[in-house]
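USER:
Try writing one entry.

ASSISTANT:
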Amino acid sequence: MARPAEPVAPAARPVSPALLALLPLGFLAVFFAWPVLAIVGRGFADGGVAEALGEAETWRLAGFTVAQAAASTAVAVLAGMPVAFLLARVRLPGTALVRTLLLVPFVLPTVVVGLAFRALLPEGGVASIVLANAFFNVAVVARTVGGLWAHLDRRLEDSARSLGASRWRAFRTTTLPALAPAVTAAAAVVFLFCATSFGVVLMLGGARYRTLETEIYLRTVQYLDLPGAAALSLVQLAAVIAALVLGAVARRKREGAIRLRAATDTARRPERGEWWVVGAALAVLALLLVPIIGLLVRSVSTETGFSLAGYRALGGRGQDEVLAVSGWDAALNSLRTATDATVLAMIVGVLAAVVLVALRRTPGRLAQGMGEVMDAALMLPLGVSAVTVGFGYLITLNLLPGDLRTSPLLVPFAQALVIIPLIVRMVLPVLRSVDERQRQAAATLGAGRLRVWREIDLPLTARSLVAAAGFGYVVALGEFGATSFLARPDAPTLPVTIAGLIGRPGELNSQMAYAACALLMLVTVVVVTVIDRLRSGQSSVGEF
């Protein structure tokens, strides 16, 4: 008699997405929403928010913030489009190197870029602010637009050309409309970054040119004007939400466009009429190198010639002992803080991405709506003043057990808020690309949810996870806004130390600042190179 078949254990019931969402949303509520609302609430309680909103100065600052962000976005889009073409449609030696180097400006610390443009344009002003912000964000445009451009079928444009359309008309009537969602999404993200730029405006704008972000800093730190800071935060938050809504709409359109097109290789050698676009792209890349080279030269330049005195001085506390710790101690503080922030952000960000994927695959408008709201909420920390969050920490976190205000984890918490959205944007498209049938097959064979993740999702997303961790690490390493407000005097990070050195007299202090910038830049280049090698085998169609 044949033995009866043993029953297959039922698949473990999947954990509800709503339950999984408790950790990322809880973290966001405690370490972002609560501090921000506390500052805004205190501003209203003290009175004067309505008065501050009615002041002409408030709207002058808002107007300048929007104007410089719009100008920076326009420059970044115009500069990024030729580079996007180069990455998507051109097969030439060195394209992989271009893709790697393009990421470096985006993740350079703001204080480094501020010093680089200060060395090139000592007078500062609006032009330097616009150029520096555009310098940061050319990569966002190039890689976001290029990711979609690489998946567009060239035959439609070729058909238009065969019917007599000029190269420009064929591009304008066929390719550009298809790219519009990616261009819009990239422009919305760039505008968001430029509108909330802190370090660049603080270093290049001086007292004359101020944005909402720098004014919030001044009113909070120097004047303790909470009503005024709260009013400016509300104006800034409204602009951020508008940019996020526009970006989300464009992102959905882009994802829809991607699903309709095959992921074929469209790169080839440029035709005769395309070489000028390639030349424009190479010119943009050369211009991106100018501030970097200028900073390196400045780090070894003194009044008497070239010298490595600034690098040697990093072992001390600067001229006249202006620092509380040595430059190397500050560098170690940066490494430790960035490590803690990255670990925390990976836990929260990856779990948030898993939840967003689960909500998207859950039928019903309620789940879809929850996913969209959660996605937008995770992006909000990018657009709210880091000073508002930092000052909110100081008036709220003492109510938690252990009084986190004195904890060494205070700065990592603030830095994690900044890099969580970037991690989500990098991991989410890869998770969405995993074939759901593989998960269902594993679950049918009795695998629980955790084992499905370990056996299916993790191997397919491992490289993306490592790349996201590295990307978040270099961003945390150079974070300046919140860190400048929260770092203890005896435990500064390297960007905070650089800013302190620049504000002190003495040639040696200036040399130390530029030498420290060069070291931060070197670390950034190394990490970015590793990241891009890890991601080279994956599609670049997803979020930047």
About this structure: The domain at 49-216+262-296 is CATH 1.10.3720.10 (MetI-like fold). The two ends are 62 Å apart (CA to CA). Confidence is low (pLDDT under 50) at residues 1-12, 258-264, 537-543. The first helix runs from residue 17 to 20.
